[in-house]
Amino acid sequence: MEFMEALRTRRACREFTEEPIERSTIEDLIAAAILAPSAMNLQPWAFVVVNGAARLHAMSAEARRVALDHLPSSSPLRAHLAVPHFEIFHNAAALIVICATGGEQQAAEDCCLAAENLMLAAHAKGFGTCWIGLSRLWLGSREVKAELGIAPDLHPVAPIILGRPRTHPPATPRNAPKIIWAR
After folding, report:
1. pLDDT tens digits, one per residue of 137-158
2. pTM beyond 0.90, yes or no
3. Measuring CA to CA, which residue among 165, 175, 177, 176 is closest to residue 10?
4. Could you report how far apart the first and last alpha carbons of the chain are, in Å?
5. Burial code of 25-38, b = ≥16 C-beta within 10 A, e = fewer?
6. CA angle 130, 77, 67 (to 5 degrees)
7. Does residue 2 form part of some domain?
8. Using the 8-state DSSP alphabet, how is residue 16 labeled?
9. How does pLDDT run across 45-75, given as a tens digit for each residue?
10. In a domain, 100, yes or no
11. CATH number, residue 80
12. Backbone dihedral angles phi then psi of residue 86, each to the nearest 5 degrees
């Protein structure tokens, strides 16, 4: 897929087929992620992979509950999360959590750059992705870190679900950019 076409057509995907994802595919996507630039080339990222829709389904209710417990009462996201059978991981085949290593000032931003690379590479290979930011608090808890083998010094930044898209969401309109030309 041509790069600009990938930028124009990548969308957040929330409907997936039941097709599992091969370990080698996930490794290829992570290889694309680490090509991202990072401050001083520190590459302050680690990748935690939860592979399997059944495992993600089992974790979904608790992640949803934690997110709901910490959202402000005025948040429009509460309506989605309050639905009892809402799947925060959208029945995806895998979850890749990009974690910042250590406390470098730019580590979180560097992880975001890696996440964009991963999502674009996945799209180019015919996969769908969605950043599930509402799961970060849950993923950062001591109990969940221990369960998933996430070291205490790693900080979840970009939880990205991955799978074969059941549907291809349409493009959403973009606002005109706000450009300020410096004097």
Report:
1. 999 999 999 999 999 999 999 9
2. yes
3. 165
4. 39
5. bbeebbebbeebeb
6. 75
7. no
8. B
9. 999 999 999 999 999 999 999 999 999 999 9
10. yes
11. 3.40.109.10
12. -65, 130
